[in-house]
Backbone:
C-alpha cells in the first residue's frame, strides 16, 4: 500500500506537519491548540580548519524533550488529556519539522561570519523533520506490516524530493535511531530526516573513492562492491529479485548490514513500484534477525545513503546502512580513543561470523 | 621528577613489560608465575573500498577482561592472593604489551590477502601497550602529583621513540579512556598506546588540511590556529610559559579542550625538560575543572596527536585532545545517525560557553 493522500497543516508555531494517509481522512481539520513559542533560530556552522569539516553548534537542542513519560509523548496522537505534536486523534504516517532542529531556514540576522579569522562561520540552513511510523506508542519499525513499510518508503521519497529542492540543501538523509543505548530521547517509533547544509564527511569520502574508482576503471564502485558480495555469498543475509542484504567485508560495527537495490538509483524517489514493494519484506526480515540475536530489542542506527543534490550526484548509489553497537548480550561497542579521536575502527566481530549468526536465526 | 631507571622483563607468555622507576628498585627480579597461553595472532586489516579506510578485525578482543572485581585487577601489583599482569609488589609507572591487542607483530602465516577482489586484506602489524599511571587502584590521573605526570610524559616519550622504530608502524598514539560511560573495561588508572599500521582517518584529514594550508599560505596550520586562539582568548582555559589549553572554536564534543605547546614539535620525545615539567600542572588543572563541571568524575578521552612516522611527518604539531561525552549532569552525548553514519557532528554546547564554565570552576 502507499498513501492515497497527503494533507499539510501548520502547527501553532508555524512549523509544517504532513499527514500521509493510507485511507481518506479529515485529520487536517484538527488544529494545534497549544500556544508554542516561536521555534529557535537555526544552528551555526563552524569550520574546523584542522580537519576541513563543518560542525553544527545547536545550543537550543540542549533543552530538548528527554524521555518523557508515555502519557506525555509528543509523538502520540493528541487525546483528551494531552496535546501532542500531532493534533489529530490518529494517523498512519506523519511528518513534521523538528521542534529542536539541527538545521532550519530560520536564520539569525545578526549572525557573525567568522571566529578568529581561521574559523569561517555560516548559518546551518537546512531542514530537520520527524517521521512517525505508526500511532502505536509501543510498536517498533520491525513490527510494522509490509504495507506500512511501503507507505514509509513513499513518505521518505516524497520528503527527499521536496527537501532536495530547498535552497542550500546538499544531501537528504533519512535515518532511524532505535534504543536508549544509542541515545534515543523519545521511545515512540519514529525516524528523522536531515537535509544537510554541506556534504557530510562520510559522503565526501564515498564520493572521492567513487570518483577515483571511476577514473581508474571506468566502472561504478558500489555496483562492483555489491556484485562481488553477491557472487561471493559468504556474507549475504537474504535477498530477493530487487534487493540484497549483506554484511560488508570490512564492517566497522559488530553487527552491520547494508541493503542495496540491484539497480543503481540515486535515491528513494528513483525506485520503481516493484522495488518499493520488495523492500519491506526483506528489511523486516533483517530487523527480525537483529532482534533475535540476543533475544531482546537490538539498539540500532538505520541510515539511508542517497546521492547528493549537487556535484557528484551521478556517483551516488542508494543503499541502507543498518548497524548496532551491541556486541554481546550484555556488552556494547563503545567508540573510545581509537575510533573517536583517530577514526580508526577496531571491530571485535568477524563479518563472516556476524553474517552466519544473522542467517542462523 | 622523571624515571631514574627502566627495567624490562618478559611475562610468562613472552610479552614485554617495562618498569619506569622513580627510585632505584629491584622489581625486575619478580617473575611472572602464571602459566599464560600464547598471545593471540594480530588482527586482520580489511580495506573498505567505499570510504577508502582500513578497518581492524580483532576477534580475540571479544573475550577480553571485562570489569573484573577489584581483588582480581590485572593492573594492580601482584599480591599474596592474586597474580596480576605486574609481577612486582609495587611500581611507579609500568608499561606492558596488551594481552588482547588490536595490533601486534604476531602474524598468522596462513593469512588471506583479499576478500572478494574488492577488499584487500593484510595483517594488522603494530603494537598495543598498556600504561599504568600508579599502583593505587582507586586513584585517577587527575590525582597524580605533577612529578608523577612528568614520569608518565617521559614514559610515553620513551615508548614513542621505540615504537616509531618498529617495522610497519605509521603513527604512535598514546591515549587514556576514563569512565565506564566511555567503555572502560578496567577501572584501575591506566592509558594505552597504539602503534597504528596505517595512518588513521583523522590524521589523514589533518595532514591533507595542513598540506593545503602550507601550499596556499606558506605557513603551518596548527601554529596559526593556536596563535589565533591565544590572541582571541575567549576560549582559553589556562596557559603558562610553554602550553595553552583552549576549547577549539569548532569543538565537536560538548566539552573539548586542546592543549598544545607554544613551540611546534612533532611528538613527545621532542619536548624539552622545561616543556615537560610545565605540562603536568596545566593538565592537572584542566582535569580538575573537568571533574568539577558536574561535581562527579567526568568520563573522558584524552588523546595525544603526534606526527606520523613517514611521509607528512614535517606537518605534525604535537597536541593533546581531551573531550567528554557528558553534556549535562545526567545526560551523555551519543553519536547517533548524523555522527555515526554520516560523520556530521552536532554539538549542543556553544564552545565559548563551555570555556566559560570550565574557567569559572
Residues:
Amino acid at each position: 500500500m502507499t498513501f492515497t493522500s497527503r494533507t499539510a497543516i501548520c502547527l501553532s508555531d508555524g512549523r509544517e506537519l504532513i499527514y500521509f494517509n493510507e485511507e481518506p481522512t479529515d485529520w487536517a481539520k484538527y488544529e494545534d491548540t497549544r500556544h508554542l513559542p516561536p521555534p529557535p533560530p537555526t544552528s551555526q556552522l563552524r569550520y574546523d580548519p584542522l580537519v576541513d569539516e563543518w560542525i553544527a553548534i545547536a545550543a537550543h537542542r540542549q533543552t530538548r524533550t528527554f524521555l518523557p513519560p508515555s502519557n506525555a509523548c509528543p509523538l502520540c496522537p493528541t487525546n483528551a488529556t494531552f496535546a501532542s505534536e500531532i493534533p489529530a486523534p490518529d494517523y498512519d504516517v506523519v511528518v513534521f519539522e523538528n521542534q529542536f532542529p539541527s538545521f532550519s531556514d530560520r536564520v539569525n540576522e545578526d549572525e557573525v561570519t567568522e571566529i578568529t579569522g581561521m574559523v569561517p562561520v555560516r548559518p546551518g540552513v537546512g531542514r530537520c523533520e520527524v517521521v512517525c511510523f505508526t500511532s502505536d506508542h509501543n510498536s517498533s519499525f520491525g513490527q510494522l506490516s509490509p504495507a506500512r513499510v511501503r507507505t514509509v518508503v513513499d513518505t521518505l521519497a516524497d520528503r527527499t524530493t521536496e527537501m532536495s529542492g530547498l535552497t542550500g540543501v546538499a544531501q537528504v538523509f533519512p535515518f532511524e535511531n532505535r534504543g536508549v543505548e544509542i541515545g534515543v530521547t523519545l521511545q515512540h517509533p519514529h525516524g528523522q530526516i536531515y537535509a544537510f547544509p554541506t556534504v557530510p564527511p562520510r559522503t565526501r569520502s564515498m564520493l572521492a573513492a567513487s570518483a577515483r574508482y571511476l577514473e581508474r576503471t571506468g566502472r561504478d564502485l558500489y555496483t562492483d562492491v555489491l556484485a562481488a558480495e553477491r557472487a561471493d555469498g559468504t556474507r549475504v543475509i537474504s535477498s530477493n529479485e530487487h534487493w540484497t542484504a549483506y554484511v560488508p567485508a570490512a564492517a566497522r560495527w559488530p553487527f552491520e548490514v547494508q541493503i542495496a537495490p540491484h539497480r543503481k538509483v540515486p535515491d528513494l524517489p528513483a525506485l520503481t513500484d516493484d522495488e518499493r514493494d520488495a523492500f519491506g519484506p526483506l528489511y523486516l526480515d533483517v530487523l527480525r534477525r537483529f532482534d533475535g540475536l540476543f533475544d531482546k530489542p537490538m539498539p540500532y542506527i538505520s541510515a539511508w545513503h542517497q546521492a547528493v543534490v549537487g556535484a557528484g550526484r551521478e556517483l551516488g548509489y542508494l543503499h541502507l546502512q543498518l548497524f548496532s553497537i551491541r556486541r554481546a548480550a550484555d556488552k556494547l561497542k563503545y567508540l573510545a580513543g581509537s575510533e573517536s579521536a583517530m577514526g580508526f575502527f577496531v571491530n571485535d566481530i568477524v563479518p563472516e561470523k556476524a553474517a552466519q549468526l544473522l542467517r542462523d536465526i
Remarks:
- Residues 5-198 of chain B form a domain with the HIT family, subunit A fold (CATH 3.30.428.10).
- Chain B has two domains: 5-198, 202-359.
- Chain B touches chain A through 85 residues (CB under 8 Å).
